[in-house]
Amino acid sequence: MEPSVASIHRYPVKGLSPEPLARVELSPGEGLPHDRRYALHVGAGGFDPAAPAWMAKTNFLMLMRDERLARLRTRFDPATAVLSIERDGKQVARGNLEEPAGRVVLEQFFAAYMGDALRRQPRVVSAPGHMFSDVAARVVSIVGLASVRDLEGVMRAPVDPLRFRANLHVEGLAPWAEFEWIGREVAIGSARLRVTKRIRRCAATDVDPSSGARDLNVPLALRQAYGHADCGVYAEVLSGGTISLGDALARQAG
């Protein structure tokens, strides 16, 4: 079976729910458009949009610590920058992420929703061209679905691939074969990427993305079964192009 793209997701607001895509246009040196474009800052140090710098994920609302976020469903409209938030099928908040009034509405919602779990008032933050990635680079994250199924066998429990919050899910690889791509170039659709490193997993993967329940210990299972806590890889875009569902992946020679 030829490796191919099984699903594409972006996460417009760090820590919030994914948005499935049928296709995406990649640019050199960038992640997916609008992926991790915004974050909810709760750290002690401020984020300066005029001089944006990478900050550790602990400065933001995120699933590793704030599993309650997984109970929300969000929709982002790139044309209007409006974020809509639903819980149990009902809209509970809506605001424009690019306007002060809209940000205040969303900040107040998250302050009330998170309650005593927060030490500081959340602030919507963003900066042109900045990506709130877990690593100090603009990357695309890739997970092989066969690896997730292999992990399911080890854990003897279903493991939703969305626990890993990847941009691309790939079908047709052998389990853990994506680790062999480190340092290699991969053609996907009309884009070309270089795989840079494995992704070490944290307690965010313990959270069921549907219920928000912290019901598995994925990093522990990875370490016990495989001797590492890694699942998936990061890649940098070398040549831009379009990636669509079903597109083949080809590792480049060399």
Give a description of the structure.
The protein has 254 residues and is α+β, with helices and mostly antiparallel strands. It has two domains: 4-31 and 135-251, Beta Barrel (M1 Pyruvate Kinase, Domain 3), CATH 2.40.33.20; 39-125, no CATH class. Helices cover 14% and strands 31% of the residues. It contains three helices and 15 strands. The protein has helices at residues 100-114, 145-155, 218-226, and strands at residues 4-10, 19-21, 23-26, 39-41, 72-77, 82-87, 90-96, 123-125, 140-144, 168-171, 185-188, 191-200, 230-239, 241-244, 249-251. Strands 2-1-10-9-13-12-11-15 form an eight-stranded mixed beta sheet. A three-stranded antiparallel beta sheet has the order 5-6-7. A hairpin with a 4-residue loop joins strand 5 (72-77) and strand 6 (82-87). The protein starts with a strand and ends with a strand. The mean pLDDT is 96.
The CATH architecture of the largest domain can be given as Beta Barrel
Model regions low in confidence, pLDDT < 50 over at least 5 residues:
none
Shape: globular
Please give the domain count.
2
* Alpha-beta content class: alpha+beta
